[in-house]
Design goal:
heterodimer; A: 255 residues; mainly alpha; 11 helices; globular; B: 235 residues; alpha/beta; Rossmann fold; four-stranded antiparallel sheet; 8 helices
Amino acid sequence: MLRIVKYVLYDILQNRIVIGYTLFLLAVSLGLFNLSGDPTKGLVSLLNVVLIVTPLVSIVFATIHFYNASEFIELLAAQPIRRSVIVWSEFIGLAVAMTLSILVGLGIPVALFAAGATGLTLVIVAVGLSVSFVSIALLASVLTRDKAKGIGVALLLWFYFALLYDALVLFLMFSFADYPLEKAMVAVIALNPIDLARVVVLLQMDISALMGYTGALFREFLGTGWGAGFAVIVLLLWVLVPIVVAVRVFRRKDL
Amino acid sequence: MLESTLLSKSFGKLKALDNVSIRMEAGQAVSLVGPNGSGKTTFLKCLLGLVIPDSGAIKLYEQQILGTWDYRRHIGYMPQIGRYPDNMRVGQVFDMVKEIRRDTFTHLDDDLIKAFEVDKFAHKTMRTLSGGTRQKVSACLAFMFDPDVLVLDEPTAGLDPLASEILKEKVLAEKAKGKLVLVTSHILSDLEELTTDVMYIIEGKVQFYQSIEQLKSRTGEDKLNRALAQIMRGV
């Protein structure tokens, strides 16, 4: 498998978009830290950028790359290797590229200005989030044949997770305000990797009090060692489940 | 050597293959002939595992191959339109396929690589190559690992006359070594030169599968194109 990952990575790293994305992250991180003066404030601003930008770039880039690699995939599929190896190699290549971008673009500024547990959490969460959106992108790509449709689906998914989901949750909370929904909220955030990432970092920052009673409940549940373990496991599920399903679908796909 | 039983595949309403049962032996060279969209390429793609049939079975060396992958070490495939990663150089494509097939071949056959003078354009990226040059790359890759089965989908389309002759000589040489060759083409004179048998497909059904000699004596014609034309009028 590593022999194929090597060529996938080679192809991705030559791409100017990845380099541009890394430079963009670097510029935004350095800019925010320099503007805010206080590293904690810088981290909060950075968190908001990370939660919007990294999923978007990961899902769109992974989708476009997968469609553009269709020739490459066809060439490989006629060789004596397993189909699953092809998808896993694409996934690992994309995940490594996105991780490298974040480590350089986000990790270096954070290490310089806000080294510490919170900074580390932010970087780890950003990596987890990117990889899970690469995984979701590959699932969307193997399910749709047409490139334009695939990119559309990717954008819609991002829109849903980044914006629509919160609106739906707010609507639910508003409609069922008379009921004790706080415990249910813990389950609800697990269904959206972006929300999960946000809560994990906010808890690290010790400003969960800003989130009211629900925040206190998160603190109680996710703040403990067990809760942190839960968050990590759910995020890992968001990485693994889509790609495992994608591999299963791809094994029976006509090329 | 190669056997398909009741192989069927539909794309939506279109029946691309309809209960195709066929048996081919080493040393045979079979032409797949039929109108556009009759299922020739689908048959080859099923054999390669690129398309997954709805029902039926394919056996190579008496081994069921559907859903497996290791059998592809015995196959060299030249696609109708060779599609390669744009950013890769020709030399890199060769290196990559060699690396992937590292454990599956005993020796490299570089006859075509020499004959097509691949060294001269090895440094170019795949994007910049003309259609014919891509076909040369495809041909080299198909023959390079000395496979037992050669699957050639429209091999001479797009090649210049000289390259086309080189390729045809190579096919004949491999056939003489006792390999199984499957060719699709619309150029009947090429097929007459290269192959021993004809498999004629219409709308996914095999109309007939006969040696060229039988076909000629049956129709009383001495040219393949005339023999086929006579049968097609009759069908």
